[in-house]
Amino acid sequence: MRLFVALDLPADLRETLALMRGSMPGVQWVPAENHHITLRFIGEVTDRHRMEEIDLALSRLAWKPFELSLAQADIREGLNADSLLIGVERTPQLDALQSQVESALRRAGCFPAKRRFQPAVTLGHFSPSQRADAIQWVQRHNLFRSKPMPVEHVTLFESLRSLGEHVYVPRAEYAWQPDMPLIPEEE
């Protein structure tokens, strides 16, 4: 199983983001149902025991609900293709939740994250030859700002390949638990 932990987006926000696609030919647009904010990519997990450890660690997350907003279009360079994305306004609550997810996954035996946390929603992928069009797309959408969305749970997703596209299937949801004591951040 190829796994990652993310914040799922509300349907209305997914629809808003889908409308931003515009007419940029040759872009491989991410289906709206796959829009999310990755908190931590885990990777391939084949050991059932490791999967149970991950599930147990994530079930112990503790935080108070908060809100976050998406804002500004951007480009992220990749190895094979670049990405069009919408950024996420960083908050102390989001950073603390991501840090807690990272710590929980390490305790479950996962390797440390390979990349620094840069929250965003990927909308599409394009080739370097389309850079000029991508810059225009970013300029058209750079003032975008979503209404605040509530963060009350995190989701463990499995990434599957189907007919050449990725399909993200929710495997478990870990909701805010008001009775769970808040875990202090590890240094």
Automatic annotation (TrEMBL):
Transmembrane feature ranges: none
Motif HXTX 1 location, chain numbering: 36-39
Annotated InterPro entries: Cyclic_Pdiesterase (IPR009097), RNA_CPDase (IPR004175)
Gene3D superfamilies membership: Cyclic phosphodiesterase
Active site: 36
Annotated catalysed reactions: a 3'-end 2',3'-cyclophospho-ribonucleotide-RNA + H2O = a 3'-end 2'-phospho-ribonucleotide-RNA + H(+)
EC code: 3.1.4.58
Taxonomic superkingdom: Bacteria
Keyword tRNA processing tagged: no
Enzyme class: hydrolase
Alphabetical keyword list: Hydrolase
Protein family: Belongs to the 2H phosphoesterase superfamily. ThpR family.
Biological function: Hydrolyzes RNA 2',3'-cyclic phosphodiester to an RNA 2'-phosphomonoester.
Identification of the protein by name: RNA 2',3'-cyclic phosphodiesterase
Annotated organism of origin: Gluconobacter vitians
Organism lineage string: Bacteria, Pseudomonadati, Pseudomonadota, Alphaproteobacteria, Acetobacterales
Gene of this entry: thpR
